[in-house]
Structures are given as C-alpha cells and as structure tokens.
Amino acid sequence: MDSKSVTPAVSVTGLSKTFGTTRVLRDVALEIVPGEIHALVGENGSGKSTVVKILSGFHLPDDGSTVLIDGTELAFGSSAASSAAGLRFVHQDLGLVLDLSTVDNLALGNGYRTGFGQRIRWREEIRGAKQALDQLGYTVDITRPVAELTPSERTAVAIARAVAGGAGAKCLVLDEPTVNLPAAETQRLFDLLRRLRDTGVAIVFISHHFDEIFELADRVTVLRDGQWVATEPIGALTHDGLVELMLGRPLDIEHSGEATHEMGEVVLDLNGVSGASARRVDLEVHAGEVVGVAGITGSGREAVARMVAGGLDFRGELTLLGKRLSPNRPDLAFRSGLASVPADRRTNAVLPGQSIRENLTISRVSPYVIKGFLRRSRETSDVMTLLQMFDVRPRKPEADIGALSGGNQQKCMIARALRLNPRVLVLDEPTQGVDVGAQAAIHALILEAAAAGTAVLVCSSVSEELAEICDRVVVMSGGTSTKVLHRPLNPDQITAATLAVREERAK
Amino acid sequence: MTSSLRTEPDQATPDEEKSRSGWRGLPTLGVERFSGLYLMALLVLIYSFWIPDTFLTSTTIRSIASDQAIIAILALALIVPLAAGAFDLSVAAQLGFSVALIAWLQGHGWNAVLSVVVTVLTGAAIGAVNGMIVTRLHVSSFIATLGMSSILLAGAFWITNGRTIVSGFSAQFLEAGRKQPFGIPLPVFYLLGVALILWYVLEYTPIGRYFYASGANPVASRLAGLQVDRLIFQSLVISGGLAALAGVILTAKLGVASPDVGSPYLLPAFSAAFLGSTQIRPGRVNVLGTLVAVYLLAIGVKGLELGGSPPYVDDLFNGVALITAVALAARTSRRT
C-alpha cells in the first residue's frame, strides 16, 4: 500500500469549515488511495461527519480547501458534481424504499433504462440489477420488496446502488454501516467490502466499533476537535493506542473504585431483560443512587431506558418496587412510582401547540380537581413554583411550549417527571441538544432528586455526563451489560470501556 | 388534531425563532380569537340593512337556531375524537342509523323514553366498535370510521326496508322535538345542554386535558403515562352516543325517518369543527368555537337565501368560509 506510486482516489488538503464563529474543521488533510479500506475515527463532534458532508456536496468548505478526486479538483457544494467525480455514499439509514423491490431501488438512484415512449425495459433492468448484486457476492430475489431482505442484504443493495451509477465509483464512503447488523451479517458485509476494495475502489469506513476497524481497515485516520491527528497503517496501532489518539491524552483508567456510600433498597431490578438491541440485561438501581448506562450506538444502551419507561416491548423480568412491570405499559409504570424523560424531546415528550402549564402537568392533573372542576388558578400557581425551581425562562405558564429554547424545554420535561415525586426516575439522553449552562442545571436537578431518595437511571452517549453525575456506570456492549464502573469515574475510562472489543462478535 | 388543520405544524418551527417572537394564543386584541363573532355581528348588520323585512324577524332567528341545532350537536360529537387525535367519519351515518332505529322502535310500540335511551346507547356501542377497530386492530380511525359509515348506511336501509317512515311515532316523542317554550324550539335547549356538558368535560376535567394532550402528540402522551388507546376509544364512544342523540332529536323534530338522511350532514359538521378550531381557542377544536362556527355559517347562508340567492350558494359559502378561515389561521400561526 505505497501511496506515493499511485494517484490517490481522494486527496484532501487544507480543509476547513466554519459555522458562524465556530470552526469545526481546521486544515484537515486526508489521502485515500485506490484499493484500500480507510477508517475515519474520532469522538462525536470531532468533525468526521462534516468531512463527509463536504465531500458529498452538502456543506461548502471555507476558502483555501482543496479536494482532488483522482487528480481532478472537486467542485464543492453540489451532490451531482460529487457523484460525477466518483464519490459515493451509503448512509446509516441506507435510504432505501422498503416497499419497493431491489430492481426499483437500484433504478431510483440511477434512473430506469427506458425505450420508446419512456417504456421501462424491465428485462434489461432485472438483468442489470442481478449483475450488480452478483458482483458484490450477494444472490437475492431482486423482485421482492427489500423489506423482506436481511439487514446485510439491504446494505448490499444500497452499496450496489451507490457503486453502480454514473461513470463508476472511485471512492465509497460508508457511515456506520454495521450499526444495525448482527455479527454474522457483519462478516458478510466485510467480505463484500473486501471484494469491492480488491476491484480498486477506495473505501472510507466510519465506525465506532474498534474491533471492526482493526479487523477491516488497512489504514486509519484520526480526527480530534476538527483537526487531523494521525494517519497510520492499522498494523502500527494497538487498541489502547488508537483510543489515546482519539481522546488526545493518555488513558487514565487505573482506579475503578468501589461503591462509596450506603445505598437504599433495590427499587428497580432488571433480570435478563431483552428487547430491541438489548439482550439479557441485568441491572439494579437502589434508592438514592444514580446509575448510568453507557455504550456506543447499537450496543443496547438506547434500548434500556425505553424498556424500563414502557416505550419498548421486552421479555424478561423487570421489577419496580417489588412489582413486576408489564412491557409496553408506561401508564402502569407511572402509577407504580416511575417517571421518565424520553430521548428526542420533540418526538417523544413535547406536546406541541400546548402551553407550558399543560405540558408540565399532563402526567397528573387530578390534584387540581376540586368539587368536580379543574381549578386553573391552583394549577398555575403550582406551575409557577416549578418554573422557579427549575429556572425555566420565560416564567410564563400560558406561553406556548414552542416559545422556549431547547434547554428550557428540556428543563420543563424534567420538571414534568420530578413533579410526580417519583421513586424511580428514568432519563434517556437528558441533555441532548441542550446548551452547556442548561446542562449543568439539569445535572444539579438530577443529583438533587437522588439526594432526596429517588433512584435514577441515566442512559447517555456522553461519557462526561455519566462521569459527572453517576455513582455507578453499567457499560453495554453487543446488546448486554458487560462491565460496571464505580466511583470515582472519569470520562476516558467510560469511553474506553464502551469501545472494548466485544467478545461475542469476535467469535 | 392541530396538525391536520394546518400544513405546517408547530414542531417544524425552530425553537429559537419562536422564543424571540412571543407565542400564539396571547389574548392581546383578541381579533383572531373572536374574528368569528365580529364577522357574525357584521353579517347581521349588513343583512339588517339589506333585507330588514325578512331577515330581522323572530321566525328567521328561530329557524336559524333550531335548524342548526342538529348540525351543531353533530359537530360537537366530532370534536371529541378530533381533540383526542382520531377522525370519526361515521357520525353522519350514526345519525342516519339512529333515525332508522328509533323509528323502528317507536313503530313497534316502545315508549318514548326507553326508545331514546336504547338508541343513544346503541350509538355509543357502535362508537365502542369503532374504538376497538382503531385501538385493537390498529386500523387508522379515518378508514375504520369510513368503513363503519358504509355498514351503518346498509343497516339503516335494512331496518326501514328502504322506506321513509312517517307514522308510528308517539305524541310524547314528537312533542319533545317540536315544543317551543318561551318561543324557543326545544332542540336549541338540547344543544345548549350538550354544549354545556361537553364544555365542562373538555375544559374542566382531567379527561378533557388528556384528550387534547393525546391529540397533540400521542407518543409523548403515552410516554408521559397517559393511556392514549383508551382515550381514543372513549372519545369514539362519546361521539357515537352524541351522534345518535342528534339523530333522535332530528327524528322528533321532523316526525319523519328516512334511511339516507345522514350523509348530507357529514361535511357541514366537519366544516364547523375545523372552522371552530380557529375561534375562541385557536389551534384546537373547542366547544365555543364550534358553536360560533355553526351559527356564523348559518347566518351567512340564511341572509343570502333570503336575499334571493340560488340554493347552491349555501354549499359554496360553507366551502369558501372553511378554506379561508383555516388558511388565515395557518398564516397567523406561521407569523408568530
């Protein structure tokens, strides 16, 4: 893999990008040669996705940035130009229409072959589709809806579509292609990628799974805080070495202490609970304790809070205050003393078009019913108290919830849950899309609730957040809880643990 | 149900934009919230000068009030599921079916009170079937109630053998539809009763609050501990019962039962509910707004009729008013 003897498929120099006053990319250089699989690694916010979006023509870079595709300069800001130059992209969600067949999905990207009167030449179309997938080593029924295919077959269809169109692909960029794949399917996909590499296509592979990177990649480029840090052949790196490059400091994971203070009784108990991406999760939360759940996307982390809070079906034994919880019944969970703040506020929490007052009290309005009438005055004064306690601004109970900033909305959602004086509080990504000031305020509120005896379960993808507020962090990997970290916690240690090699997948 | 009225739901607006420019529903001048009332006053004024002899008579006022009572009750039946986030397209067919049912019951010698109770309960039961189809079989309410409409229409023809029934009603029953205490027809009182109860339920009880929440965001409501499926079920039971009641009152008022009487009521009822959602409490369907909408449309149409316009102007006026009002509401909510 001597990069000097061949023209690079992609050569990026001096790539910078500024949003407003924030510089998210600074002088990034990147060189990808034909016939290599090049992994792009970095923490959330390191600039990986910005690089991809510039390459795909979605963002315009700052002046002075240059991208050469096979020696020719790329015109920025146009997805058509990117595609014509030979850059292809497969995004995490694949962008397939599930109800349509493979043939149709391939044609949607690249146009149907048509004859006289725009008649679609189905026979040619079908032959072409079969050929495209054969080349990738997949034989599927290309006339069936892609919804009936396995996840890796669907990924193959998306790759076939990306590779097929136009004058031929020079570089294929895959953004977290394995997130939704089971282990066996992942291997099939890797075989496909190797086969594609051997035909001379350059492949950029973005993944948070370090074990996959070590298995698949030829070279690795590390980005940190929008800057290029290193490009190394994979053989020159160790697992810990790569984590250190990514974090920018030596790993500090020596001390993993024991539980520091006395806990109350167990109030929330998960015993072999499975659902969605989580498998046989065991977890206990004591009264007054803040337990974090960490893990990369697809590790099962994102399923835990949803199972406990009732938004997701599960199998297994989930006990709340000594009572078995039925799956999919958030109402029963709430009645037994649980309150939750789901992730993705806009979809799962906010009642749009309703006032702050209505949003805050919706979980339980009955306390304001006096002699058969809902007393708004009493409700409003309660809401005012909450707005002050949680420092929500503006303090206008009748204002539309949409008038609040994201951070204030999130404080409202937490106020909605804590207003119920829950015995168990479940938080899923509690500070997602929230500015730093509001983050600190939300953390303080969580700790306050725990100090008052509430058991708190926090699922978060932000290691700093977990390290700051948790007594204990359960690390999810490959769908199950693999490790428990105790106080004192530090973010690096949590991040490193989430990136540890998954044994099940290695087998 | 807000999102069904406007093409641009609130979620689409970035938080930051909204936080700077205040919020919707602020009672400053109230022009928007009460525009229907102002418009109503304006129309009355115009017609009073234009056709004072015919428009400004007690007969006209009485006929507007009582003719619209049925549509108003039907529209009120509709707003319950609309608030909870479900469509009930079967309200008009429910009305038609209950007309046929009560005529049959009376014709078979049932006493007035019992036949009314049975008819209304049957309506509620049909609403419960709607609710089961929507919440258990996971059929969209739009389709479930559309299908139910067709079934009920068939049922009405089956009960009446396709004939219009003009006899067999007890005197007591007909009196309940025709009497005019203080010169006001009884159906107007029924409407006021229904409106009052529904207003209380939607505005002053927890379940009303829960209806609106589940309509605004069913996923969020469920995750906040509400039983959204049960709320939708209940809302369809209520709309079924109320639609049947509207049918009963219509029968008592007319003294005639024809099996296909329901269908023409569907569009006016929906128009009134949607137009009403731009009034009094803009952005959500509500009792007072619906009443304003019903009578605003009725006054507008009546004046034109008396002024000599051809009968199709009725439908034309309704359609134009509905589209204009909802479009204006969508525009103001975009500006704020």
Provide tags for this entry.
heterodimer, A: 507 residues, alpha/beta, 6-stranded mixed β-sheet, 18 helices, 22 strands, 34% helix, disordered C terminus, B: 336 residues, mainly alpha, 16 helices, 72% helix, 0% strand
The gist of it:
Chain A is built from 18 helices and 22 strands. Chain A has 507 residues and is α/β, with parallel strands linked by helices. In chain A, the strands form 5 sheets. A 6-stranded mixed β-sheet of chain A has the order 6-7-8-3-9-10, sandwiched between helices. A 6-stranded mixed β-sheet of chain A has the order 16-19-20-13-21-22, with helices on both faces.
Verbal overview:
The complex is a heterodimer of chains A (507) and B (336). With 507 residues, chain A is of the alpha/beta class. Helix content of chain A is 34%, strand content 24%. Chain A has 18 helices and 22 strands. In chain A, the strands form five sheets. In chain A, strands 6-7-8-3-9-10 form a six-stranded mixed sheet, with helices on both faces. The two termini of chain A are 29 Å apart. Chain B has 336 residues and is an all-alpha fold. Chain B is built from 16 helices and no strands. Chains A and B meet through helix 10, helix 11, strand 18 and helix 14 of A and helix 2, helix 10, helix 11 and helix 12 of B.
Largest sheet of chain A: 6 strands, mixed
End-to-end distance of chain B: 19 Å
Number of helices of chain A: 18
Name the overall outline of chain B.
globular
User: So how many helices of chain B?
Assistant: 16
What portion of residues of chain B is helical?
over 70%
| Share of residues in helices of chain A | 25-40%
Overall form of chain A: globular
Number of strands of chain A: 22
Largest sheet of chain B: none
Q: What structural class do helix, strand and pairing data of chain B support?
A: mainly alpha
- How would you describe the oligomerization state of the chains in this entry? heterodimer
Give the mean pLDDT of chain A.
85
For the terminal residues of chain A, how far apart are their CA atoms? Answer: 29 Å
Based on CA atoms alone, the radius of gyration of chain A comes out at 25 Å
Provide mean pLDDT of chain B, rounded. 85
H/E series of chain B: HHHHHHHHHHHHHHHH
Strand order of the largest sheet of chain A: 6-7-8-3-9-10
Return the structural class of chain A: alpha/beta
Largest two-chain interface: A-B, 43 and 37 residues
SS strand fraction of chain A: 15-25%
